[in-house]
Amino acid sequence: MKRVIPVFLLTVAGLIPVWRYHPSTGTAATTTQAAVPSAPPSPTSSSASTVASAPKVVPGTAASTVKGVFQVEVTFQGDRIASVRMLQAPHHPQTKWAIPVLIAETLKAQSARIDSVSGATVTSAGYRESLQAAIDAKGS
Amino acid sequence: MRRVEHVMGFPVSLRIDDEGDFDAVADAVFAWLREVDVRFSPFKPDSEVSRYGRGELAGGELSADLTEVLALCADLRGATGGAFDIRLPGRGLDPCAVVKGWSVQRAADLLTAAGARRYCLNAGGDVVVSGGPWRVGIRHPEEADQVCAVLAVTDAAVATSGGYERGDHILDGRTGRPATGLLSLTVVAPTLTEADATATAAFALGAEGPAWAAARTGCEVFAVDTTRHVLRTPGLPVT
């Protein structure tokens, strides 16, 4: 049932540039340059096709984890997230942290045969109208 | 067998497809979730969480369970640069976001220990499945009777955080204001403990959240931003 998925704008491949592990790169916690790939990164390259407004690139907060410091950079096209890439990722012996690769797609609405639904159905009012209610009712 | 009960403020659906009598463990699952509600609800003044939040219990007096939950919360706070925070000004101690995933995963572990091999446990939209593949829909953030993706999930958990049902209930701890940037964010992970915590924390991070969640070990991500576009990881098991 796979249909052609309209991949949204982004760059040629529709993929975020993949950041790869560089053993020689430092891990300075505050600089946003620590893990920029040595290849030309073209951070604002998401100007494909129809979008008129200039992309806005916003660095995220550097987040410390037990594995080290992560920091991402988000490129906005208007209010939309056009791409996300990693500015900093920790050194890690057995992985090149090929992250994050995110694919952009358009939002679809569908009703399909499913066994369960993930998504907040916290209030009973929400639950009554939810698909999960229909599934539960059908099964009883 | 199927069972639905309203526990911890949301509906919990259990479906077990194995042959056999699983009534006793189903009872145990719902009893455990009710126990969690009594012990960990920040809305019950006598709960352990409320008493700790008011300073009536010291760290050394806490149960092993709450100690474990608080450690998970502290990890997430560090991993998000403070965006995920269970101690926000004007709010009491509220570890709900972690308690839910953690407790429902433990309920699923009860099922597995009792010999259930093919089951689906859905607690207020957070799902743990065993066996499979199960077809788990991701609720469309704006159309409650529609899904925006269908996942084929085996032996894994799916959690979604969104602002669409309870309003802006997830705050960005860095600003104290409602998280912005995303309509919903779904995480598939080996356990619901990881999936739910990651989804909530990533939603609090906002625009940075999808990439942050994608960088977590074992996590696949599906996010809808406020302009109704999707960002997802290539490994997401979409059908």
UniProtKB/TrEMBL annotation, chain A:
Quick one: a GO cellular component term? membrane
Task: Please name the InterPro entries in this protein's record.
Answer: FMN-bd
Residue ranges with Low complexity bias: 44-54
- Give an example GO molecular function: FMN binding
Q: Which portions of the sequence form the region Disordered?
A: 32-54
FMN-binding domain span: 65-138
Q: Pfam families under this entry?
A: FMN_bind
Put simply, this protein is called FMN-binding protein
Organism expressing this protein natively = Streptomyces yokosukanensis
UniProtKB/TrEMBL annotation, chain B:
Q: Which reaction does it catalyse?
A: L-threonyl-[protein] + FAD = FMN-L-threonyl-[protein] + AMP + H(+)
Which top EC class is given? transferase
**EC number(s) on file:** 2.7.1.180
**Cofactor(s) it depends on:** Mg(2+)
Keyword match Zinc: no
Signal peptide positions on this chain: none
Which SUPFAM superfamilies does UniProt cross-reference here? Answer: ApbE-like (SSF143631)
Keywords, comma-separated and alphabetical? FAD, Flavoprotein, Magnesium, Metal-binding, Transferase
One family from Pfam that matches here is: ApbE
Which InterPro entries does its entry note? ApbE, ApbE-like_sf
- Name of the protein this chain belongs to: FAD:protein FMN transferase
